[in-house]
Amino acid sequence: MAIANAVQKGNYVYVYDERGRNICQLPAGNGPKDGLVGFTGSTVSIRRGNNIYTYDEHGRNMFEKHAY
After folding, report:
1. What is the DSSP string of 7-27?
2. What is the pLDDT of residue 48?
3. Domains in the chain: ranges and CATH
4. Opening angle at CA 42, ends 5 and 7, nearest 5
5. CA dist., res. 18 & res. 46, Å (int)
6. Helix (H, G, I), strand (E, B), or coil: what is residue 46?
7. Cα–Cα dist 65/24, whole Å
8. Single pTM value for the model
9. Beta-carbon neighbour count of residue 47 at 10 Å?
10. Residue 66, pLDDT score
11. 18: exposed, middle or buried (Cβ count in 10 Å: 0-12, 13-18, 19+)
């Protein structure tokens, strides 16, 4: 199942498949720089604090990177 869209609404990022179905919901954080960074067909990246977390289409954390 591929990621077709990711949209931030408030403190959550909603991830949708190619049929428009919500496939997962991820916390976006609540800081001034926190939130959705971007997405591809297989990953979603979200900044929370000083880290950028990358998730797969099932909402599993794949890795994190320190953001400067």
Report:
1. EEETTEEEEE-TTS-EEEEEE
2. 95
3. 5-66 (2.40.10)
4. 25
5. 20
6. strand
7. 21
8. 0.90
9. 19
10. 82
11. exposed
